Structure formats: C-alpha cells, structure tokens
C-alpha cells in the first residue's frame, strides 16, 4: 500500500523536544487532493494517516472507544471511551486536544450539539440521565432525567439542538436542550435506535424485537407513525438471522432517499426511505465485528471490547452515494448505485486495507475524512499517490 506512512500519537503525551505531534490535513491533502474534492474521485484512495493510542489503564488493559462524533464544521472529533473519559481531537492538525473525565456517571453516546463547545452524552452508572456538558471548562449545564433504563441512542436534530433519546425502558423521549423536562414521550417495544431525516421533519425509530422501523411526523409525533417498515417481510430472503436482533445503526442518507439499518451479522440493510422496501443487502464477506449490538451489551461499558456496545460501525458518506462499514479487518465501501444481484445482494465496491478491527466508524460532515476505532483511533485521508 503506497503513500505516506501513518503517524502514531499517544494522547496526553508530548515529545521530549516540547513540540506537539500533528498531522496537518491541508499538507496531507495538498498533493493534488483537495479536502472537498468530489468523493467519487477519491473514495478508493483513503489510507490510515494518523493513529492515536491511549495509555494502559490501571488494570493493564486499554480502553475501547464506544462512540465517535464530529462537530458541524468538521474540525473536531470526539470519542466516548470505556474508561469513563471523553477525548477530543483537532481534525485539521491531527492532534489530541483534551481529555474530559466523567468518573462519577460514566459516559457513552457522546454527541456534539450545534455548538462545538457543548455536548450531550448518556450515563453508564449512578442513574440513566443524559448530561449536557460545556467542554471548555468541563462543567455541567443541565441534566435530562426521565429514562429508567439504559439509554441506547441519542440523535441530534439536524437544524436545532432538540434531540431524541431511546432506552431499554421502552421509551422514546424528545428533548428541547433548553429544558430539563422531556418535551415528548412515546412508549414502544424495544425502541433502541433513532434517526432524523435530513429535513428534520421526520424521525425514525428502530425496534429490533418487533422487526420494524417506524416513521413519525415530528410535528405530530403523538399520533401513530405514518409508516411502519416491516424488516422481517422486506429482508428475510437475504438474512433470516438478524431480522429481530443484532441491530447496530439507523441512519437516513443526506438526500433523504435511503435508510441504512446496520447489523452485526453478515451484512447491512439498505432500505428505500419512502416505502421501506429492501434496495440492497450490503454483504460483509468476513462478517461483522465482535462488539454486541445496541441493547445487547454490558451497560457498564467494560474495558473488554468484546462486551462493550458501540454507536455503530457503518454510515452513509455525506453525498449519500456510498455506505462505509468497519469489519473484523479492513473498511468496506458499497456504491449504492452499483449493480445489485437478483437476490438483492450488493458486494463491496472497494476494500480499504487495514488489519485493525473497526468497531466504530464516522465520516466527517465537511471534509473527505473519516475515523475508525476499536481501542485505537485512526484518522483516514485520501492519499494523493494512491
């Protein structure tokens, strides 16, 4: 694999000469690859560019990454980790910025609000409150209390700081970030995943045990869902194992035409966002990662990666054309415009080589840049020499 060797960084440490190890993204992409070049031109040229490795914790094991998120400008990358810390990284300079501790409550599902200096995240101990934190001084702004079971999903509204949470208590709660009291409440069967459509007018809830994805009008969410997609009916011909379990991710494409339902099995489901029919079964040749699916792991977020849920190992690219996924080895890319077999199976169009498992994956909203993680965090950029 040609290109620039990957830089290695240990967050929290500094070189003996006092300088900061960094990867300037402008320099990296400057050799004929602009950070905002049309993605189709560079989709197969991504290479690992920077690796961040945390120091060992007290028991001799390294923490695992539970979630990945980027802020709206795409300049910051944030992880929540099993050692009850939040790590924030500068994307353009490829460096670790700060560590925030949440020892008392634990942390998972950390999400930026539309202000880069404030975040929300779910607790892993003490209680099941969602916490609103100012990152510049690590101070709590507000607690969102109501869930009586582990929170399984946090989804920020695309145009405002309203958000949705789901939990194992069988509730979906809608929140306005300016109030600690929930603004809306739905009781559903295993509502473990939620996602907003790009307009912010519709939200979807994934219920694995009922085998359904439910679509709601945000302005009339107290009414019945306006659409119910039966995953069992639509997808049983391609994968009968993960119709009622093992769901890892729910996401709309940015063009609003498709829904991605990730699973920890041998493939992901690509659904039509209007009628719920299966557009393609995105086959993973070597199967899924070892992490348990949402709602099926250990709520206390242990250091053992095989027991810790992630926030999802797959996502759409910002142009809506490609789906990327981590796997036991390598990163898989499917072209949603590719040729689907008669059985609706779509094979990966590209495989980005990497021996590390990618149990969590997120794509930058502004730049041709994505990150993967399990215990190490890896930044990926297009290699101009690929």
Question: What descriptors fit this protein?
Answer:
4% helix; 30 strands; 386 residues; Methylamine Dehydrogenase, Chain H; mainly beta; 5-stranded mixed beta sheet
- Got a strand count? 30
Describe the sheet with the most strands.
Answer: 5 strands, mixed
Report low-confidence residues grouped into runs of 5 or more. 13-22, 26-32
Rg from C-alpha positions? 20 Å
CATH homologous superfamily descriptor: YVTN repeat-like/Quinoprotein amine dehydrogenase
Structural class based on helices, strands and sheet pairing:
mainly beta
Helicity level, as a percent range? under 10%
* Strands side by side in the biggest sheet: 1-2-30-29-28
Using the alpha-carbon principal axes, give the shape. Answer: globular
CATH class: Mainly Beta
Strand content: 35-45%
CATH topology-level name: Methylamine Dehydrogenase, Chain H
Termini separation: 8 Å
User: Could you tell me the mean pLDDT?
Assistant: 89
Q: Per CATH, which architecture?
A: 7 Propeller
Number of domains as seen in the coordinates = 1
